[in-house]
Design goal:
By secondary structure, the chain is an all-alpha fold. It is built from 7 helices and no strands. Helices cover 79% and strands 0% of the residues. This is Sigma-70 family RNA polymerase sigma factor.
């Protein structure tokens, strides 16, 4: 990143941070989460600086990034809530430690993000096979493809799972 890029992002931050924070606060109904997502928005801008055609374009770009971060935030909260509900139904003796819980939630989030990047049929086939234990024949009928395609879909999903595992283990560098 050049000094000029840093200066552009700094000006963008000074000009629009208050506006973005307020936009996010209204959307999230939480000032702390809004502050975090506003910060994350500018981190994304720092990673990919660009030039803008005026204030409207600047705000449009920031709002687009912020919307995506809100969706990720809500999705993560949904996963955490589902996990906590599942956990509440377990006897106290079988509850994982707080550290294990944090690792599990983070892993669930990473798997969910990986599934979101897959084509719809691939992620659906994977979920039906792994979570619902459906045989290939029934998955093929459900999705409307051949069993052979289900095997290809599941191989593709498993390859992405292996890549995610390697990434989480620190073996892959982005």
């Amino acid at each position: 990143m050049t000094v000029a890029d840093t200066s552009l992002v700094q000006n963008l931050y000074l000009s629009h941070h208050r506006w973005l924070h307020e936009l996010l606060r209204r959307r999230l109904s939480n000032a702390m989460d809004a502050a975090d997502l506003a910060h994350d928005t500018f981190i994304r801008v720092l990673k990919r600086p660009q030039t803008f055609n005026g204030e409207v374009h600047e705000r449009s770009h920031l709002a687009t990034i912020a919307r995506g971060l809100c969706v990720d935030h809500w999705r993560r909260r949904q996963l955490e809530q589902t996990w906590l509900e599942t956990l509440a139904n377990r006897p106290p003796a079988l509850q994982p430690s707080p550290e294990q819980q944090a690792i599990i939630v983070e892993t669930l989030y990473e798997v969910d993000a990986m599934l979101q990047r897959l084509p719809q049929r691939v992620s659906t086939a994977f979920i039906l096979a792994q979570l619902h234990g459906m045989p290939y024949r029934l998955i093929a009928e459900e999705i409307g493809v051949s069993e052979r395609m289900i095997k290809k879909y599941l191989a593709q999903a498993m390859m992405h799972c292996a890549m995610l595992e390697a990434e989480l283990d620190g073996l892959l560098i982005e």
